[in-house]
Amino acid sequence: TAIREAVRVRFRPILLTTLTAVLGMLPTALGWGLGAAPEQGLALVILGGVVWSSVLSTNLIPALYLHWHRAPRAT
Question: Which of 19, 53, 55, 73 is the least crowded, having the fewest Cβ atoms under 10 Å away?
Fold first, then answer.
């Protein structure tokens, strides 16, 4: 179906964007560098949001679309 094809086509760009965001935020989340400690909590929240949003957008959302937009059964 079109949903499966869209997931297949968009999976790599979503994964690379998520990986880039996580690797970019990792030093702050781990508290490395001068002045990173006050922002450490915020960085962890951002990392969690980025990871969860990518998991949801590649797994849960397409599954829900498939479930809700299923072709009606013939009676």
Answer: 73
